[in-house]
Amino acid sequence: MAGPSRSRYQYIDSFLNKPGPTTDPDFVPGGPTTSNLEASKVLVIGAGGLGCEILKNLAMSGFRDIHVIDMDTIDVSNLNRQFLFRKDDVGKSKAEVAAASVTSRCKDVKITPFNGKIQDKDEDFYMQFKIIICGLDSIEARRWINATLVSMVDMENPESLKPLVDGGTEGFKGQARVILPTLTSCIECQLDMHAPRAAVPLCTLATIPRQPEHCIEWAKIIAWEEHRKNTVLDTDDPEHITWLYDKALNRAQEFNIPGVTYQLTQGVVKNIIPAIASTNAIIAAACCNEAFKIATSCNPYLTNYMMYTGDDSIYTYTFEHEQKPDCPVCGNLAKAITVNPKHTLQDFIDSLGERPEAQLKKPTLRTESTSLYFQSPPSLEEQTRPNLSKKLSDLISDGEEIGVSDPAFTIDFKFKLIFQT
Questions:
Q1: Widest Cα–Cα separation across the chain
Q2: pLDDT band for position 253 (50/70/90)?
């Protein structure tokens, strides 16, 4: 495409104007591929540490129709690594400020911001994009968008399959992965690679907290249940986080424990690991590289998982994570879980929050013929509450399948319970 604005993309054109030894057989060098790249509508989920890097990279890689969604506002603690923001931006929408910052430098790029939750958008919204890139700090949000994209796939309509490029960082470690919903391993298939952190004994939280994190966990697990039991905790809701922070701060002052802050409360409740700018830059570059290859077919895209660690020199490893036939999202079999038949239903529900392959916090359970336990509405919760103290062997049979739903997800999970012998 001719014009002075094309000069900034000369280094990109060197890839697009001639084929290489690994280019896709359908690759057409020159103008058509460049036009397809510029017309590709891309959604970036998250405008934080990873999202800022991703938006900048996409704009400099030839993408011209970018959308970004984030529900957060800018905090002063973001300024050390989220480089699109300035001190005067504190309190403003991350998505809106990030979009304006990039477009002020790349005037031929259109970035449309959305200030809100991804769960507020319907399938029609996601259907309009060619590629979706995640720069999230939440496992729950990843699982939600993954399940949504899988449910959108219509085998009669190839356009319904939306490639998902997911990036994540944790200190000096990070990963990038490419997911083709229903065709390759999805985020739920890989869930056991992101095991939840070790639980703190409840007696410690209730009687002898020793760390600020204990006070925050107390507010989340005990105080919330006592005062707001009928409200589902939303870790993305600032009002909920503020309530937990206030309770945790009072608890910490009672036991003379310093260090409880709003930022730490967010980190503990959402399991956020402090971000490092260099790790964000490397993972964002990997994600945008994959998006570029998908949009242009100039080279094979990642199959399908890249791990990076920078805490002891620099190391990367790429492998293909296999799709699991018993994946509750993209598979068609119930996932087998070994349980102790002498444990109560309450024990099993508690274990679902800790099991790496489940990580469900507010599950409702039922068999094909019986309602085991409902979290809501209150009338059904009260009706099924007596089952919580019953042994699993009194409620279900060995090898029986149960359906599990959780308000954080759009899908139902199927598990096959195998009794220990």
A1: 75
A2: very high
DSSP class of residue 389 equals G
Report DSSP letters for 98-166, one per residue: HHHHHHHH-TT-EEEEEES-GGGS-HHHHHT-SEEEE--S-HHHHHHHHHHHHHH-BTTBGGG---EEE
Give the amino acid at 338.
T
Query: pLDDT grade, residue 319 (50/70/90)?
Result: very high
Query: What 3-state DSSP class applies to 420?
Result: coil
Whole-model pTM: value is 0.72
**What positions carry a catalytic annotation?**
203
User: What does residue 154 show for φ and ψ, rounded to 5 degrees?
Assistant: -120, 115
Degrees to nearest 5, angle at CA 394 with 388 and 400: 100
**Which residues, 6+ apart, have CB-to-CB distance to 18 below 8 Å?**
29
What residues form DSSP beta bridges with 416?
336, 401
- The structure tokens listed for 408 are 């954080």
- Other Cβ atoms less than 10 A from the Cβ of 243: the count is 19
